[in-house]
Design a protein that fits this description.
Blueprint (H helix, E strand, L loop, with lengths): L4 E3 L3 H11 L7 E3 L4 E4 L18 E5 L5 E5 L3 H7 L2 E4 L2 E5 L8 E3 L2 E5 H8 L2 E5 L4 E6 L2 E6 L4 E4 L2 E4 L6 E3 L2 E5 H7 L3 E5 L4 E5 L1
Parallel strand pairs: 6-18
Antiparallel strand pairs: 1-2, 3-7, 4-5, 6-7, 8-9, 9-16, 10-11, 11-12, 12-13, 13-14, 15-16, 17-18
Length: 201
């Protein structure tokens, strides 16, 4: 399900949930064209203090069909422990809660949404559904990838993802971003303490 509309929790509702009093869910519809943005600010993951009865805190989202659904949130410690930060040229990747676009680690590789990769590195995207083929172009460079396959065509030459491969999760296409950065001669650093993948040109 491609979610294009997300909840914007009102201050009073967010306060109630984070205080542990989340006995209800408030929906405030806000139209969004993207599920991510870049900022100097350090991202704070969505979290909630468990309710008094021990159940998880929740937020509500409204999908593009107008359907309301609830998303359970982890507590603060779990959210921070599982958070993966992506930093590109000094800007942090932020994703909208409930969008299914949060970066994650797969087989030792940082996976971030295709659209965020394209935005960060200046790619144009072409998607061919029948072949699950992704074509990325930037200046005179063309990179061709396939969902679930390790092969990468770079201007006609074949190289390979070493561990993780492109995949679809939560109806989002994710790419192992380190290899793409290396192809583009972008500097890559990983901080294990903060779980931060930093890219700089």
């Amino acid at each position: 399900m491609n979610i294009k509309r997300f909840i914007a929790i009102a201050v009073f509702a967010a306060t109630a949930v984070l205080a542990g009093a989340g006995m209800y869910t408030a929906y405030a519809e806000e139209e969004r064209t993207e599920y991510f943005f870049w900022s100097d600010a350090l991202p704070i993951p969505a979290y909630a203090t468990p309710n008094e009865d021990g159940t998880s805190g929740k937020i509500g989202i409204i999908n593009e069909d107008g359907e309301k659904t609830e998303l359970e949130l982890p507590d603060y410690e779990e959210a921070i422990k599982n958070r993966v930060l992506v930093l590109v040229n000094g800007k942090y990747l932020h994703t909208v809660a409930g969008s299914g676009a949060d970066p994650f680690i797969e087989d030792g590789s940082t996976m971030i949404p295709l659209r965020a990769v394209a935005d960060a590195f200046g790619f144009e995207i072409e998607w061919e559904q029948s072949e699950e083929k992704i074509t990325l172009t930037r200046d005179s460079k063309t990179i061709i990838l396939y969902i679930g396959k390790p092969e990468i065509s770079v201007d006609g030459d074949t190289v390979y993802f070493e561990n993780a491969v492109p995949l679809i999760k939560n109806d989002r296409t994710f790419l192992p971003v380190r290899k793409l950065a290396e192809i583009l001669d972008i500097k890559v650093e990983w901080d294990d303490d903060t779980r931060t993948a930093a890219f700089s040109e």
